[in-house]
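User: Could you check the structure of this?
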Amino acid sequence: FIYLITRTGVTGGGVLDTDAIAARAAALKSCTSLPVCLGFGISTPDDARRLAPLADGVVVGSAFVRRVADGAGPRDIARLTAEFRRALD
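Assistant: Sure, the predicted structure tokens are below.
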């Protein structure tokens, strides 16, 4: 797959420009048959929900790292995973 970075700067922060991401994803998809996955800066289930239709996959990492750094345990991480899953279903 091809990993398309959705924003510049520090991962997990800032604002995602959905229109710009859609344009970049469409341009990339027109040049390759490989799956295109979006990542970098996708930090909420709502972010994932908005971006999922634009690509073949969504990569979320920092949201989980941040929760663990804030003291989240396995059950908290399972709940966060379920929130993301519901957003994508």
